[in-house]
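Sync notes, pocket subgroup
Present: LS, DG
LS reminded everyone that the earlier model was apo-only. Rerun requested with iron/sulfur cluster included. Inputs:
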Amino acid sequence: MQTSVIRGTANGTISAIAYAELGDITSSQFTALAAMQRELNADVRLSNRQNVVFRNLTEEKLRVLYDRLDAIGMARPGAELARDVVACPGADTCNIAVTQSRGLAKAIGDELEAQGLAEVGGVRINISGCTNSCGQHHASDIGFFGAERRAHGQSAPGYQMLLGGYVGQEQIHFGEKALRVPAKAAPEAVARVVRRFANERVAGETFRTWMDRVGGVDKVADELRDLDFFPTPEENPNFYIDYGETGPFVAAVGDSECAV
Ligand code: SF4
């Protein structure tokens, strides 16, 4: 529970984050969240990491809130940690998406869980299904935007990976281009970077400070370059099918839901 609680040291405020995986909340969960807000007389906000934040809590209310959230599957520890990958709608609903950004977000979360890295703190992962940045990939520690790749005469889903973006005191610092990877190699690329960051950072060090200290974006990317590899369609057809799709990847563009 403690990983999702924020205690203000200056005036003793207590806030708690309800975890919405991929930003998804069902209608019954929304109804339950509204009931919690009334019961606890709490201030409720949506966060830009696609979670629900309860503010103005007390220690007593915190226990009640945890039990209520647990009952609807939103008390899972680790909200806003590495497992909390943010993605735009992508090809699920957006007509100008190049790739299935939500599918990649799920795959990255699963890979981090499998490698024991899901609860590493201090690293934000954001994904956009095209260059339009609705997933805020440009201002994230680890960012991706979808891009068509071609390999062995076929189209394939791919991503440009960026590293080191963050929101500073007075301005946004964009992430720097690291390398392009096949969509199906992106989860392993994230796991390698998160593992290295977790092993090498010193106390209180941000992702960007760590990246600069170890030599910058190119040095970090050097350890990922073997992942920018496409087997032939005969060797591994999976590299030519996007997440959640059943047929070969086809890049087709229509009207967007947010950028036109
Ligand atoms: S236009 Fe926005 S929502 Fe659509 S794929 Fe691009 S970044 Fe995602």
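DG: The helical segments are 27-40, 59-71, 101-114, 186-200, 207-213, 217-222.
LS: Residues 88-90, 94, 96-97, 101, 128-130, 132-135, 256, 258-259 surround iron/sulfur cluster (CB under 6 Å).
Action: DG to write up.
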